[in-house]
Amino acid sequence: MNIDPLTLLAVAVGGGLGGMVRLAVGNAVAQRLGAGFPWGTLAVNLSGALLMGILAGMLGPAPSAPGQAWSLLAIGLLGGYTTVSSFSLQTLTLVQQGRGGAALANGMATLVAGFAALLVGAWLAGGAG
């Protein structure tokens, strides 16, 4: 598949910005709520799901051939902002600490509340929800 150089640039710029925002938001939430539970990552993933819902409601679902707007915002910015790898590692850490209930709560909150946030975002944008 041949990818347009402008699309690659859009993903790179969006991903860099998303990663920086993730760091700032995650740290701010963790400092405010404490480090005993991965609140920062949860807040990032839920707000990212909400924003993805808004974006999908405005632009439509993920296109098979994304243009620069989708590539910049959905793939780059929100892809760099949200983090499955951190969520997975923090959930494993909770299990290793013997905190299975907290690990289960983190997993369920991320998956269920994340999907709910996506639906709310799509609804807010006037898209299907």
From TrEMBL:
Activity regulation, free text: Na(+) is not transported, but it plays an essential structural role and its presence is essential for fluoride channel function.
Look up keyword Nucleus and say if it applies. Answer: no
Name the family: Belongs to the fluoride channel Fluc/FEX (TC 1.A.43) family.
Compartments, record wording: Cell membrane
| Species this protein is from | Halomonas aquatica
* UniProt topology in membrane: Multi-pass membrane protein
What is the reaction catalyzed?
Answer: fluoride(in) = fluoride(out)
Q: What does this protein do?
A: Fluoride-specific ion channel. Important for reducing fluoride concentration in the cell, thus reducing its toxicity.
Q: Which InterPro entries match?
A: FluC (IPR003691)
Q: Where does Na(+) bind?
A: G79, T82
Q: What is this protein called?
A: Fluoride-specific ion channel FluC
Residue ranges annotated as transmembrane are 6-25, 37-57, 69-89, 101-125
* PANTHER family reported in the protein's UniProt record: FLUORIDE EXPORT PROTEIN 1-RELATED
Keyword Metal-binding assigned to the entry: answer is: yes
- Which keywords has UniProt assigned to this entry? Cell inner membrane, Cell membrane, Ion channel, Ion transport, Membrane, Metal-binding, Sodium, Transmembrane, Transmembrane helix, Transport
